[in-house]
Each structure stands twice: as C-alpha cells, then as structure tokens.
Amino acid sequence: MTSLDDLPLRDNLRGKTPYGAPQKTVPVALNVNENTHPIPEAVAHDVLGRLAAAILTLNRYPDREFTELREQLAAYLGHGLVADQIWAANGSNEVLQHIFQAFGGPGRSVLSFTPTYSMYPLLAGGTDTRWIGVPRADDYSISIASAVAALDEHDPDIVILCGPNNPTGTPLSLDVIDAVASHARGMVVVDEAYIEFAPEGTPSALSLLSKHPRLLVSRTMSKAFAFAGARVGYLAADPAVTDALRLVRLPYHLSALTQAAALGALAHSDEMLAMVGEIREQRDRIVVRLRELGFTPHESASNFVLFGGVDDPHAVFEALLDRGVLVRDVGIPGHLRVTAGTEAETRTFLTAIAELAAERGNRMTS
Ligand SMILES: *Cc1c(COP(=O)(O)O)cnc(C)c1O
C-alpha cells in the first residue's frame, strides 16, 4: 500500500485536508445548514413525473445549454434578468469552481474576508489560485474602508464576498458590495447562498448587476430551497461571464435528471420556500435562548447561528452528539455553529445545550 505522501501529488495540494463536515446518522442533524423540513409531497410527485419522462430520454445526452432551466431561473430571480445571464452547475460549489477555472489559476489570486466559507481556499488550491484571507472586524463585519484598503494592498484577480456570511451569519450591505465592485480590478463574486433567510426587504446584489459588468451573484437550491441532495447551484452575471464559464465546464455537466428535478422544484418555488419564515423564527429563538444561557450568539441573517462562550467546543460538540444532536465545530476558538431546524429539532438542541450549561454552572459553583 502506498500513502498519499508517496504519490506525485501537485505541490499546492500537499498537506491539505479535503472538505469534511462529518456525515453521521443522528436524530437531529444541524451541522451543514440544510433546510431540515422535508419536500412537500405534491412537489415530490411533480418532480417524480418529470424524472420519469427524462429517464425515457437517457440514451441521449442532455441539453448542454440547459436552456429551459436557465429561462426558469431567470424568471425566478426577477430583476429583469434573461437566460443569457444565467449559469448553473451541480451545486454552487461547482459554479464557484468554474469561476476559479475561468478567472483564477496559476499566477492569479483570490481574496476573501475571513472567517468565511471553508470551500473558498480549497477551490483556490484545486485551481492553483493564490488564496488571500483578510481578517474581518471583531464582530465579523466588513467596512467599506477596510475592504477598499485590502483591494489596494493585494489587487486580487477575484474577490468573493459571502453575504450573509458562512460560518458567522453576518449580513453584508449593498454599500460594501457596490464599493468593492467599483474599486476592484477583477471579478467580484457575491455568494448569496443564504440570502433568502435575510430579513424581509433585504436587497440582493442582483440589483447591482446592471451597474457592474464584472459582478457575479451566486445562489443555490441547497439551503432555503430544500434541494441540497439534487445538487443545483446557479449564478447571474453579464452574458459575457457565462460565455467565459462555458469554456471550462465539462460537456453536458448538468444531467437530464438534474435539469428535470430542478425544473420541477422551481415550478413550485412558493411551496419549496414556504418554511423560510418558520426557519427564521427558529433562528431568532436560538439567539434569544443561547443568550439567556450565557453564550454569545452572533447576529445572523442566515439559517444558522454561530455562538461563542463555549469553554471547550470539542467537548460540547461530543456531549451534544451523545444526546443525538450534531452541530458544527468550525474551528473558531470558543465557538460552535448550529443550524436552525424544525421547531422540534430546535427544541431538542436547546434542551440539550441548556443541560450542558447547567452542568457547567454546577461545576463552577461547587
Ligand atoms: C452551502 C453553501 C453553498 C452551497 O453549496 P452547494 O454546492 O450549492 O450545495 C455555497 N456557499 C456557501 C457559503 C455555503 O454555505
């Protein structure tokens, strides 16, 4: 048996660890920010009918241009967008990979504000793009002044702004996006994976697209849309950007089954998004209760809460797991992240963490 170290692996992949959120079968999985509500049965039946029809065509390659899907995604996004401005792939992670392949690469750099989504540096490594992580303020916000200063200092080829930010939940204002897009030389990606969970009326970076031809807005069906298992992410940008991404995608990258399933879900977008309000309520409930328990939850515009005041995150992670609740240790000292689940899942988490907090209190007073 050889080991990884014996193989002629590319230098920039040596010593790296793959993306690895634990996948465990537990009663309450609140670790990867999925929508934990099941797909409505009526939607499932419609998707099934479309899959059945698609199966009869699987002897042929799918529509390489996923034309109908792009049209429906444009209609869903609104903002006057048309199909030529839409791109899609197997999850927004693949959309991001296409962006790195087209606009990053050897000799080029990507900048983002940390802590942020752990896949960005991995995608940079995989495409030989130099990763520049610029620390956020203590409250994880980004100011216009600090963003502009970072651009002046590093002059990156790609900037990624994650708003709301994962793993912190921090909202991202349109002013910051506008300033970065105005100031950056290269491409500016806004990752709006969690935008549907932001407060009602929060403007999307989509509203800035007509002003900035190098602005790319990435979305996913994996979170609010309750479709993580189908693997569909998408992007809106200038039509020239989708022309660039076409150069790096594999032929027929979106299977006929994926396209059919996505079209089925989009035809029922209201039903698919019906639980978003309820999930926001559970998120807010988590913030309030964790604060009562003496933790320090951060402001969140997403479907998860990052909270500090955890003396030993690893021990609390394990103790929650013993109680059937899986959360995420995102590697920020003293912190854990929890996804807002159903009412019952959220109650199970809050009961478990309250017990742990009480035990800790008892230990400290005894
Ligand atoms: C979950 C997530 C995504 C979405 O990934 P998919 O590949 O679409 O499932 C993208 N960006 C961020 C910041 C995320 O947290």
Automatic annotation (TrEMBL):
<feature type="region of interest" description="Disordered">
    <location>
        <begin position="1"/>
        <end position="20"/>
    </location>
</feature>
<dbReference type="InterPro" id="IPR005861">
    <property type="entry name" value="HisP_aminotrans"/>
</dbReference>
<keyword id="KW-0368">Histidine biosynthesis</keyword>
<dbReference type="InterPro" id="IPR015422">
    <property type="entry name" value="PyrdxlP-dep_Trfase_small"/>
</dbReference>
<dbReference type="GO" id="GO:0030170">
    <property type="term" value="F:pyridoxal phosphate binding"/>
</dbReference>
<keyword id="KW-0028">Amino-acid biosynthesis</keyword>
<keyword id="KW-0808">Transferase</keyword>
<keyword id="KW-0663">Pyridoxal phosphate</keyword>
<comment type="subunit">
    <text>Homodimer.</text>
</comment>
<dbReference type="GO" id="GO:0000105">
    <property type="term" value="P:L-histidine biosynthetic process"/>
</dbReference>
<comment type="pathway">
    <text>Amino-acid biosynthesis; L-histidine biosynthesis; L-histidine from 5-phospho-alpha-D-ribose 1-diphosphate: step 7/9.</text>
</comment>
<dbReference type="Pfam" id="PF00155">
    <property type="entry name" value="Aminotran_1_2"/>
</dbReference>
<dbReference type="InterPro" id="IPR001917">
    <property type="entry name" value="Aminotrans_II_pyridoxalP_BS"/>
</dbReference>
<dbReference type="InterPro" id="IPR015421">
    <property type="entry name" value="PyrdxlP-dep_Trfase_major"/>
</dbReference>
<keyword id="KW-0032">Aminotransferase</keyword>
<comment type="similarity">
    <text>Belongs to the class-II pyridoxal-phosphate-dependent aminotransferase family. Histidinol-phosphate aminotransferase subfamily.</text>
</comment>
<feature type="modified residue" description="N6-(pyridoxal phosphate)lysine">
    <location>
        <position position="223"/>
    </location>
</feature>
<dbReference type="GO" id="GO:0004400">
    <property type="term" value="F:histidinol-phosphate transaminase activity"/>
</dbReference>
<dbReference type="InterPro" id="IPR004839">
    <property type="entry name" value="Aminotransferase_I/II_large"/>
</dbReference>
<protein>
    <recommendedName>
        <fullName>Histidinol-phosphate aminotransferase</fullName>
        <ecNumber>2.6.1.9</ecNumber>
    </recommendedName>
</protein>
<dbReference type="InterPro" id="IPR015424">
    <property type="entry name" value="PyrdxlP-dep_Trfase"/>
</dbReference>
<feature type="domain" description="Aminotransferase class I/classII large">
    <location>
        <begin position="28"/>
        <end position="353"/>
    </location>
</feature>
